[in-house]
Amino acid sequence: MLDTRPRRTFAVISHPDAGKSTITEALALHARAINEAGAVHGKGDRKATVSDWMAMEKARGISITSAALQFEYRDHVINLVDTPGHSDFSEDTYRVLSAVDSAVMLVDAGKGLEPQTLKLFRVCALRGIPVITVINKWDRPGLSPLELMDMIERQIKLRPTPLTWPVGEAGDFRGVLDRRTGDFIKYTRTAGGATIAPEKRMASDEVEENDLLVWHNAVEEHELLELDEADHDQERFLAGETTPVMFASALQNFGVAQLLDLLLELAPAPGPTEGVDGTVRQPEDEFSAFVFKVQSGMNNAHRDRLAYARIVSGEFERGMVVTHASTGRPFATKFAQTVFGRETTSVEQAYPGDIIGLVNANALRVGDTIFTGPKIEYAGVPSFAPEHFRTVSAGDIGRFKQFRKGIEQLDQEGVVQVLRSDLRGDQNPVLAAVGPLQFEVVEDRMLNEFNSPIRFSRLDYQVARLTDAAGAEALKGMRGCEVLQRSDGTHVVLFTDNWRANATARDNPSITLEALPAGG
Ligand code: GDP
Q: In this protein, which residues make up the domain named Tr-type G (predicted)?
């Protein structure tokens, strides 16, 4: 049966501790109108159980892959794509954002914009992903709302257009002023936030006596914002020039229904997507999807590889045979599944905006396109400028086979970029990372998954540029740089510093030297 319900596919971006797990659970709670969240989160360690999507899947009948959470709200299907937390922060996080149509930026009212939020936001800007901002934890003392707006405008160069405005300062949260209707949405505290907080809506002349003083302050500030033309404009939002802002307390479930309504109202539905050759697929065209995340070791016994793909167009049906764009080979999707932990559920059908997990996907790499019908290939996922370089070699030469296999696997998963040259051979490739944490992941996985201890040596490079075959040839042997190749064939030139990279470009105008966007 064709599921034509509209989709919204988004990610929550935030610095650790801003409340991502809390709001994720609150969103699912609202979406399924279940009265007691306590069934999912125990009293003790809320955090551990909150992020346990498996439990949510069972309790609420929502469908989850370990990459995305799917639920229904007002006859829409919502896909919330997970962005990894701080500990495994790497290029992976950036790639995940290629699978969404919009992002919700969660800001801690007390802390303002934090480093990881800024980084993730930059990726959204680069990819033109519209961002809705939620100022969270308004039930606690925090910064003033105008100060927060100023931070957003100055630090991320987005014009904030608040849709609601807090009534009562942070820590004295009475509710919000709905700037589009002029209504007061009153916040009622519920014990522990276990149930959906009633959001009582009333006209401005119904505001009660004891709220009047703070209400008038809010109205005054709202009028200031109006004069400053800080009102929502859908076109500018979609163009990535403005960000609608709302105020919430995820822990108390306040603002969560407003956020869901906003996602339905403002966030873009899956749209047409352009391939590298300029042809465009509309969502209703034949099936196509691209892989944005590859994961292995979910099942240690089989060491099967799972490829997560975002559907761009058409209807996916389990068992269909698709074409793998980069090799032209057929790929059977017999085992399309949602997988969490050890349990698997088959996906029978999926639609544009949905995320599917393809099992036994050993041929698929991050960025790959699969399709039916006429050929289409998407640009896939962005690549960011690596700024950290090390050579890697087997710590135990008796395990060289494991070493080679492990490095190849981690390369295909995109855990780190592996750069090779004839000179270095297979024994001594260069690993290039956007963040140094990626090296720790490599070390850990090589040892524990592939049984191969490794040795790193530092390299005196700081800058990478891309070149073509002619450039690679011309630069070979030149001082202060080294020419290597990624497994996708791209030629990468490493320089000791920016000065030398720029000087080389200046002295050799005929050589292509392309910089990648900064990710760090
Ligand atoms: P994550 O690291 O972004 O997933 O953050 P969590 O959802 O785990 O939240 C971090 C901490 O902030 C937890 O102790 C939450 O209970 C708390 N928290 C989250 N949202 C709110 C909120 O709206 N108000 C208050 N007071 N605390 C919150």
A: 5-273
